[in-house]
Design a protein that fits this description.
Blueprint lengths: L9 H5 L10 E15 L2 E15 L4 E5 L6 H9 L6 E6 L2 E2 H6 L4 H10 E4 L13 H11 L4 H14 L16 H12 L6 E5 L7 H18 L2 E5 L3 H7 L2 E6 L2 E7 H6 L4 H8 L40 H5 L5 E4 L2 E3 L16 H7 L1
Parallel strand pairs: 3-8, 3-9, 6-7, 7-8
Antiparallel strand pairs: 1-2, 1-4, 4-5, 9-10, 10-12, 11-12
Helix pairs in contact: 5-6, 5-7, 6-7, 7-8
């Protein structure tokens, strides 16, 4: 077993060596459906994630945004191997997560994979065992992976200090701490085994705004100090903009747009992304993107629309949108979008109607 030092974490030493390396995480055409009982004699399937593909580079933060029910949290659990993948592959440092999870011949590889991929859950209260002390909660992953009692105690104290808590908090219980403090404990537990990838699933949505800012700054500081890579899931567009280097926009289980954060917020291409950003409250509306408001309800994942799943709410829908699913193609340098409005390899829109001509201009 590799001994972890209390003074310096092993992740700090690999930050400079990450440049030029292959992506830390690769998600390739991943799909997941869940069976549901529609009636005593009829069964259906909910399409939670459909053909999702993206990459996450070392030491960066990729944000995933979308409406509730778009598949963000399901995608996170598929990546971590918490639920089975129907189709596609997830590669972590070139190793197939699904193959290692299913193979009985690679227990050591599975343990290393679990050690390097951790998650910070949404609810800071229910994610903690109310009958265990904070010290026991943080040290439990180390106990499972064979750390000595001395190592567990020293590293637990170090982690508490890293997340802005005092070593004395190790004797506290979850009910004795505030929501922000409990989320700091969740972060400390996620960092207990020096993971390379941390998935934050709505990690600040249950916190007050002032506490949100503190936790977000803490996550950024930890990333800079420990060389962490984040997959940051949130429905709050402002939070994602602050945290992310790249942003992936999901709609009804599919990726509709992905590019770097600055470009997405300055010039979104997909009509859904435009509508999302236009709905965000701003102090100066003149600087925000102009887009028609979204109309109608999110279609049921039990029976998603044919072709483009956004077409039933899109003001620019064309005939081809009902016939063919748009692929996620590069419309500009580093800017991928899944929309029939754009000619492949160009950000120019197909001006086939007065509405499109206005939008393209």
């Amino acid at each position: 077993m590799t001994t972890l030092s209390v003074e310096t974490d092993p992740l700090v030493a690999v930050v400079d060596g990450d440049a030029g390396r292959p992506p830390l995480l690769e998600v390739r055409n991943v799909s997941k459906s869940f069976p549901v009982r529609l009636s005593p004699f009829k069964k259906g399937y909910v399409s939670a994630v459909d053909g999702l593909s993206f990459t996450v580079k070392h030491g960066t933060t990729v944000g995933i945004v979308g409406e509730s029910g778009c598949g963000k949290s399901t995608a996170a659990r598929l990546i971590l191997g918490l639920i089975d993948i129907d189709n596609g592959d997830v590669l972590f440092e070139g190793r197939n997560v699904k193959a290692q999870r299913e193979s009985p011949q690679t227990p050591d590889d599975r343990r290393e994979l679990r050690r390097n991929m951790q998650m910070v859950f949404q609810d800071p209260h229910s994610a903690l065992n109310p009958r265990a002390s904070i010290g026991e909660i943080i040290s439990f992953p180390m106990k499972v992976h064979g750390f000595s009692k001395e190592e567990q105690q020293e590293r637990t104290q170090w982690l508490l200090e890293q997340v802005g808590l005092h070593a004395n908090h190790a004797s506290y219980y979850p009910h004795q701490m505030s929501g922000g403090q409990r989320q700091r404990v969740n972060i400390a537990r996620a960092l207990a085994l020096s993971p390379r990838l941390v998935v934050c699933d709505e990690a600040v949505s249950a916190l007050d705004k002032s506490v949100q800012a503190q936790v977000l700054n803490l996550l950024k500081d930890l990333q800079a100090e420990l060389g962490l890579t984040y997959l940051f899931i949130s429905h709050d567009l402002n939070v994602v903009q602050y945290m992310s280097d790249e942003v992936l926009v999901m709609y009804l289980g599919q990726a509709v747009e992905m590019t770097d954060s600055a470009r997405l917020y300055a010039k979104p291409l997909h009509p859904y992304t435009q509508a999302l950003l236009a709905s965000t409250p701003r102090l100066d509306d003149a600087d925000g993107p102009v887009a028609p408001p979204l109309e109608g309800e999110l279609p049921s994942p039990l029976d998603p629309p044919s072709g483009c799943r956004f077409r039933t709410r899109c003001p620019y829908a064309m005939e081809v949108c009902a016939q063919e699913r748009p692929l996620l193609v590069e419309a500009a340098d580093g800017h991928r979008v899944a929309c029939h409005l754009y000619v492949e390899g160009s950000v120019e829109m197909r001006a086939t109607s007065p509405a499109l001509a206005v939008s393209a201009s």
